[in-house]
Amino acid sequence: MRMKSKKLAVTTLAVASLLTAAACGGGSSNPPKSSQSNGGSPSGGPNLQGVSYDVLGQWTGGEQKAFQAVIDAFDQQTGASGNYTPAAGGDEAGVLGTKVAGGTPPDIAILSLPGAIAQYASSNKMFPASSDVQSAVSANFASEWGTLGSYKGQLYCAPVDASNKSTVWYNTKSFSNAGISSPPTTWDEWLKDGKTLSASGVQVPISVGGGDGWTLTDWFENVYLRTAGVQKYDQLTHHQIPWTDPSVATALNTLKQMWGDPQLIGSPQQAVKVSFTSSVDNVFKSNPTSAIVYEASFVATTITSDKLPAKVGVDAKVFPFPSVNGSQPVVEAAGDFACAFSKNKAAMPFLAFLASPEAAKLLVGTEGSGFLSVNKNVPSSSYNDPTSAALAKQMVQVGNNFRFDMSDQAPAEFGGTPNKGEWGDLQTFLTNGDVKAAQQQLEKDAGAANWG
Amino acid sequence: MTKDAELPPAGTSTEEAVVPVEGGTTPPVGVPPVGKRATGGRRKPLPGESRWIAGLFLLPAAVFLLGIVFYPLVYTLIRSLFNDGPSGEATGFAGFANYVHIFTQSDGLEAFKNNVLWVVIVPALVTILGLMFAVLTERVRFSSAFKIVLFMPMAISFLAAGITWSLIYVDEPSQGLGNAIVTGIHDTFSPSTSYPELHPLNTTVISGSGARGYQTVKPVSSGSPGLLPLTGLDLTAPPPNAKPAAQPTGSGLTGVVWNDFKLGGGGKSGVIDQGELGIPGIEVQAVQGGNVVATTSTAADGTFSFPSLTSGSYTLALPHSDFVAAFGGVSWLGKTLITPAIMLSYLWIYTGFAMVLLAAGMAAIPREALEAARIDGATEWQVFRRVTVPLLSPVLLVVFVTMVINVLKIFDIVFILQQPAGGNAKYANVLAVQLYTDYGNQQFGAASAVGILLVILVIPAMIFQVRNFRKESR
Predict the structure, then answer these.
(1) Which of A82, A96, A213, B369 has its CA 20 to 30 A from that of B72?
(2) How distant is the Cα of A369 from the closest Cα of chain B, in angstroms?
(3) The whole model's pTM is what?
């Protein structure tokens, strides 16, 4: 999911200044239990005068700024000095892998793949979370988020931010042109609205960014969650059932109702070349060729960073991924975790701080930040815009009834490599619609990967 | 004796002393023997010729070479025989599994196949094109200017060239030069105006498909006008000549083709509502018994009439030519063309390079040989075929082999041009890109195996090249 490191530049000064006040107020009225319990330093945190630590991540731009604000707040409280570096070339997994293999890991690294957490934990490259971190995580997050940061029941990493990957974005103007008054809530309504949009003259009603294979994996995962249920989802995530399972065929056939219809997604040969950013651009540019794009909450970031003429929340609105055959609401999520790779004295306190509402408020509220947090104790008012607040709220409300991005949990050679494995196989499926061949190829590629 | 002055003074190193080989190996009469022979059979080693001292001076280079070439090579070889752990560590001996993996996995196999294609096609083409340009630019005026222009792409990095070509290969004819040319040529021969975006919403009134054309389900007679509702017209930018749809008037068989959808929706399906546009200039056929009886086209408000058809019932058809999508050009970075397209950009870069080398080689061909052939009555083609090419063959071979080596390790231009190709990028995979991908996934064993395979493939060409250089320096 390399695209996630896109910058956001929301500029709502008034809100931002309000938030700063809110963040300060929140900090004092609701102190995070964890990092401050050790006591000692002037402003309540542990005294880490003179300790310096470095953090490796992949955030740049607005997100880097927001994360830096968290580091600054921590440093001010404890006297430590943190140094955040975004991985060169945005290839954090590669940079971290090389650093760890070379024996010079960063003190803290931000990981977005739960699979990586298990890898590093199993090879003892990472250090288990201290009791402070554990209590902060359990106090502020739904237990499933803690489980994602754990390996064999032991917590290693603290959740930092999250993205809601069950969001469908639409151009309100296109909808009103077609006379669609309310967004679809079921898959069939969605298909019907797509036809209506097509009749209203939208060339490609539903924009599929098939050029980036990961968007297709997210499509599949959302449909699979709804047609097969969470249990099968978990099994398929860990390759405990094969991709040739009938449930996969059901999901692919459902997808084919949409992907196989040129009136809905245009020519598949074309769709497979459209990158994620172009797929968003096509919906929200000044002469839109599409009306709907499915992806995650970070579509908002793309809209602002690509300087598209649509305003999030006004011209660009969101509806939850519709229910398929009466399925219950369920959210697909992704997120980043902070993990300690050294015994640096500041590492654990920093992780605990990251899990606190105080840090989360800074993270989501800093001007230009595109972050969402699943921290239960972050009020909606902390967000820069109501759309982000609503998407975050949706994730907090479902509690444990969400599932983490499946491909993010698979070995990278299967679930995380451009044009290879799951990405490549779904791209092929998009172009030819051959369910059986897709299943066999997926199973073959999954079988060749190292599931640990 | 003037020759004396050209010879190096006796007593310098032996290599220098035998340098003037041009013009025959036998020294001219009267020149005293030089070098080794001058001092007799045995001589004291000069300073700097001692093996120990030589070794001492070579040591830093040797250490450097061992450290940065030999050690990584051996390590890579060993690593390629081990399995990959989840975070990149070696786990257990794998034998040749990593090598087998290359040929059993679809992307590895694709990479190998493409590399073979590259080696078979590109070096030969570069050499032939280079030779062609070298010969053609030899005799023209301002030949240096031509050569400079042809050589210029060499001055651009692969990255920049790749980005330039990715712009050329953009699908949109208004953006990509490649498709601008292709569609320009195509449209000169078959200009088209049609409505590919139109389709019926209600298939009980009109059936068919864009590829076959549409027709009314029920036959229409002259008394009752035929209604042909279609949808899909871009209502935010409708055709400028389209007028609101009207009820058909006139004599004979009449009807209307209109866009059964108005901005904001809400119209009744199959009924001409206020605000719905007629579709102008679309061809309508009246069909009876499978035969097209009459053809007409619609007015700006979508109405049409066949005044001559006053009786009988007809099926109204919209032929498929009404719905043909405008020719959008070629999918340069699509499944089939992506590798040839990348090869073309590579040719653009390297043809100039081959040309310059070959032109230099041709300049060294003795004029007399060519003159002699011409005097003997050889045609220019025969001169080229029987004299130029054989005399040039060492240079041709050097160019060819250099290209083989270059092409085997091809990475950058493929990688750059894969970026805009989206899902089709996998069809351009080559071994070096595969290595990079595996490395990125921390499958260091698999990556090492690809690296070693590349080394093995390049070795024959290397041996040949080294031998060739040795022959030349002798």
Answers:
(1) A96
(2) 28
(3) 0.81
Residues A139 and A33 in one domain: yes
Same domain, A46 and A98: yes
Residue A416 with chain B: CB contacts under 8 Å: 441
Instruction: Give me the total of CB pairs closer than 8 Å, taking one residue from chain A and one from chain B.
Output: 129
**Does A274 touch chain B if contact means CB atoms closer than 8 Å?**
yes
Q: Which chain B residues contact residue A91 at CB under 8 A?
A: 440
| Same-domain check for residues A10 and A114 | yes
Between A119, A211, A441, which is nearest B86 by CB? A119
Q: If you measure CA to CA, which chain A residue comes closest to B267?
A: A179
Interchain contact, B422 vs A211, CB within 8 Å: yes
The minimum CA-CA distance between A187 and chain B, rounded to whole Å, is 19
- Do A81 and A93 share a domain, yes or no? yes
User: Does the ipTM exceed 0.85?
Assistant: no
Which of B235, B423, B442 is the closest to A272 by Cβ?
Answer: B423
Q: What is the pLDDT of residues A7-63, one digit of tens each?
A: 333 333 333 333 333 333 333 334 333 444 333 344 456 788 889 999 999 998 888
Residue numbers of the domain that contains A121 = 2-164+334-404
Give me the percent of chain B exceeding a pLDDT of 90.
36
DSSP state of A342: S
CA angle B273, B277, B281 (to 5 degrees): 140
Residue A159 shares a structural domain with residue A176: no
Q: Is B29 left (phi over 0), alpha (psi -120 to 50) or beta?
A: beta
A206 burial (CB, 10 Å; 0-12 / 13-18 / 19+) is buried
Contact residues on chain B for A273, CB-CB shorter than 8 A: 171, 333, 420-424
Q: Provide the domain count of chain A.
A: 2
Read off the tokens for A412: 């990278």
CA distance A233 to A327: 14
Which domains can be identified in chain B, with CATH numbers?
Answer: 1-37 (no CATH), 47-79 (no CATH), 94-173+332-473 (1.10.3720.10), 206-323 (no CATH)
